[in-house]
Amino acid sequence: MVLTGRDKGKQGTVLRVIEDSRVLVESVNMIKRHTKPNPNKGVTGGIIDREAPIHISNVALYNPATGKGERVGMRTMQDKSKVRYFKKSGEVADVK
């Protein structure tokens, strides 16, 4: 779930994490890319809509219990396994 910006409140799956603390989220932060046709690569060209990366601090995990996006932290359980938990509600986010 996106926390800030023009796409605030939108939800989508993370497609890719980029090295410099940015993520690509499906159908969020869409830009128009003008491409030339390239028959060698099979590109038809034209105006293409695609996702642009947004900073990871502007994205939060969706909590289905509250219906909102919440930040997560790491917690070590009694059996020495690490799980993610929602910082606001304290619930475990990784249920396996």
Overview of the molecule:
- The protein is mainly beta and 96 residues long.
- The chain has 2 domains: 1-59, no CATH class; 60-96.
- Helix content is 0%, strand content 41%.
- The two termini are 21 Å apart.
- One of its GO terms (cellular component) is ribosome.
- Part of the 50S ribosomal subunit.
What are its keywords?
96 residues; mainly beta; 2 domains; three-stranded antiparallel β-sheet; two-stranded antiparallel ribbon
Please provide a brief summary of the model.
The protein is mainly β and 96 residues long. It has no helices and nine strands.
Lay out the secondary structure.
Layout: E1 14-18, E2 22-25, E3 30-35, E4 46-51, E5 54-55, E6 61-63, E7 68-70, E8 72-76, E9 82-86
Antiparallel strand pairs: 1-2, 2-5, 3-4, 6-7, 8-9
Subunit structure: Part of the 50S ribosomal subunit.
Domain KOW: 1-26
GO molecular function, one term: structural constituent of ribosome
